[in-house]
Specification:
Layout lengths: L1 H5 L2 H26 L7 H18 L8 H27 L3 H21 L33 H18 L1 H11 L1 H6 L4 H28 L10 H11 L4 H25 L4 H22 L13
């Protein structure tokens, strides 16, 4: 697995390709967890971002070429952000648990994209395959040399730096931390919890939406079903391994990107199913959570005194 992910220029470049959406989704999930919000819906937000960007690439190509990509990025961000705002609204107004709503909306988003590529957006010249027409060149993210590493990497690095500075250097970041640790104290201090929750969920979903834009404009260059191998779910592991730190997300996303590429390598060279990668990811998350429990709590023995009546 190490050889396949890091042992060659091709393997390294493919690891970076997997790293890009993991960075963006991981940053979104990490930001939400800073406020004790469990955004399990990064996968669906990624799909909605890809859907919005595809609409631009397919139907707005009559616009001036220089604004196509920026418009795809903006609408992709908004697609994921608005999709995440639904659970945020339900949490603030009706006290609905965001774990349930974000997870449920994943299936709605994925099936919505499936409907489009199997139905109205299906390429009539695609020989019956469920995919859209190829995006025009003006809707492609630039790539680095002969590799598949694309401009989405810059978005991820820039977003990590911005989120880090916001959380560490601004009043808004301090309020996010306080609300996440003690919402009662934050409310007593006059902080508007509802507004902060909506804004954090909006940004969190927008970052996942950008991941969808990066994947379809930089790699796929068309919309098709299953274009994400579960980046939004893997981002949850990225977040916890990085201890919810924006800069830590960069390193952990790179390592888990290598794990995904290594999984493809062992399937090709050894015939081991790629499900092994999912098992390893699950084991990593299990041990991380278990390790936190053992560091936060101490197990002790207490003598039991039986009292006789």
């Amino acid at each position: 697995m190490l050889e396949g992910a890091f042992g060659s220029l091709y393997g390294f470049s493919e690891t970076m390709v997997k790293t890009i959406p993991l960075i963006l989704c991981g940053l979104g999930v990490a930001l939400a967890t800073r406020m004790s919000l469990w955004n399990i819906g990064a996968e669906g937000q990624l799909y909605m971002g890809a859907f919005a960007a595809t609409w631009v690439a397919l139907f707005l190509t009559h616009l001036p070429s220089p604004i196509i990509l920026p418009l795809m990025l903006i609408l992709g961000f908004m697609g994921g952000a608005l999709w995440a705002s639904i659970p945020g609204f339900l949490r603030t107004k009706l006290s609905v648990n965001e774990i349930i709503t974000t997870l449920s909306l994943n299936y709605v988003a994925i099936l919505w994209v499936d409907y489009l590529v199997y139905g109205p957006w299906k390429d009539p010249r695609g020989y019956g395959f469920p995919l859209t027409a190829t995006f025009p060149p003006v809707a492609h993210l630039p790539r680095l040399g002969n590799t598949r590493i694309h401009g989405g990497l810059l978005f991820g690095l820039f977003a990590a730096l911005i989120i880090y500075l916001l959380l560490k250097k601004t009043r808004w970041g301090y309020e996010v931390k306080v609300i996440g640790e003690n919402p009662q104290a934050a409310r007593y201090a006059g902080m508007n919890l509802e507004r902060k929750i909506l804004l954090v969920m909006f940004i969190s979903g927008g970052l996942a939406g950008l991941a969808g834009v990066a994947e379809i404009a930089g790699i796929q260059r068309r919309l098709k079903p299953g274009f994400s191998p579960g980046y939004g779910y893997t981002a949850i592991i990225v977040t916890w391994l990085a201890k919810r730190h924006p800069l830590g997300v960069l390193l952990v996303a790179f390592l888990l990107g290598g794990l995904l590429v290594g999984g493809d390598t062992i399937k090709i060279s050894l015939g081991i199913p790629t499900a092994m990668v999912n098992m390893i990811q699950g084991a990593i998350l299990f041990f991380v959570l278990g390790g936190e429990m053992l560091t936060d709590y101490r197990i002790g023995w207490k003598d039991r005194i039986d009292k006789k009546s």
